[in-house]
Amino acid sequence: MKTNNKLNDAGFAIKKQFAKSTDTLTDIARGTEAQGSVLARKGTDFHGSVKDAHKASKSKIQDSISRIEKDIEKGSGRAVKEVSKADKAKLEGWAYPPSEEKYLKYKEVYDNPKYYDQETGNINWPPNNGFEGEPVKMKLEEGRLIDRYGGPGGSFFSPEGIPYEQRALALHSDEADYYVYRVLEDFEVTGGKIAPWFDRPGGGIQYIKYHDNGKTYSIEELVQEELIELVSVKKGV
């Protein structure tokens, strides 16, 4: 609120200065002698076109007003764009379309066929299970905390507290519930560095555990086998 008030005050000050500048230029005009299309101010060596000077001054001040008003719009959170008819038609064909607000926020990502099928909206997941380079076998020790954004039906998890952007998650995960688990006994996982994806930097660490047949364990299965237990859940937005 304080920021918006300051921006509004600044906008008022600019407009006030515009009015003052106009009056000043009028006074200059009254103190000039016409010399063809050029005017010379009495008592000085200043020569110039009052009309051009007024136009330049007005343009400069209007630019300042425009910048202030844009800052006010940003400060108030008002949307300055809207979804085009073509984009709306595309999103109607998606199985799980994002809200218009979210689409506009991440338009470049949603419009990139590298990440989303443009006809169905299906997610194109990163290759190599999202690992950057080759993952390695490692052991998670009893008592360690791990976490995950998204329900227990998923398979990927990380050391507790990895920054969100380093996880390179799909955009719908922004609203996902956040789960923390505790390791109940030592067990082996495959882990490694997270590759950048969805225009997010990655760089964090992720784990998955495989069955003997090559399928991944879900978090729910790890709980059922008493390898981990739920510690807390934080509801998403």
TrEMBL record:
InterPro entries: Fungal_surface_NADase, TNT, Toxin/Nuc_N. Residues 140-229 form the TNT domain. One of its GO terms (molecular function) is NADP+ nucleosidase activity. Coiled coil: none annotated. Residues 23-74 form the Toxin/Nuclease N-terminal domain. It comes from the Bacteria. This is DUF4237 domain-containing protein. It comes from Bacillus swezeyi. The lineage of its organism: Bacteria, Bacillati, Bacillota, Bacilli, Bacillales.
